[in-house]
Design a protein that fits this description.
The chain is built from seven helices and seven strands; from the N terminus they run E-E-E-H-H-H-H-H-E-E-H-E-E-H. It is of the alpha+beta class. The two termini are about 30 Å apart.
Length: about 190
Amino acid sequence: MEMWERLEPAAGTVTLGSTSVPGSGYGRDRLLRSLLGQTVTAIFRLVIALGVVFCVGCGGESKVQLERKRDLMHIVLAYHNFFGGKDRGPHSAEELVAFEDIAAKATPANAESESQAKKALQSGNYVLIWDVTLESQGELNKGKILGYHRDVPEKGGAVCFQDGMVKILTREEFERTPKSQPSAAGK
């Protein structure tokens, strides 16, 4: 049991912070999963916002590179939201685009991020590794490429990692960096 979750068996409630919710079992689990998904979404929104703020002045990165990084930030957020909702990685771009994220509908900023991810995926300019299982321990997701702009293998460019990090790699760095692997269940 996580330290932020407290069950009160006598009253049949779940307390998260200062919020008590009646019920237990499946309904409680769905609520907890929904709150966790919203928290993850909020964290990624913050990462995207900070990335844009701090990368505006990044030396040597063109406007095109920054746009590709932004697209990949939206895509990796959508991938994480899909995984949070379905407990598996998406099988294809079509499945990821079709996924309706409840948390994204809750706030206009999240809905805009979801919309941007869908546009970027539909452009055909990005390559993602499908059916990847994202690890609950974030450090296990570090250093594995999840997606990239289609030009990266020849020219280098923007890539996103399983942990949500987006950065520019040279062609040589891209070749040396481990790629995510589809899960056995997704194949």
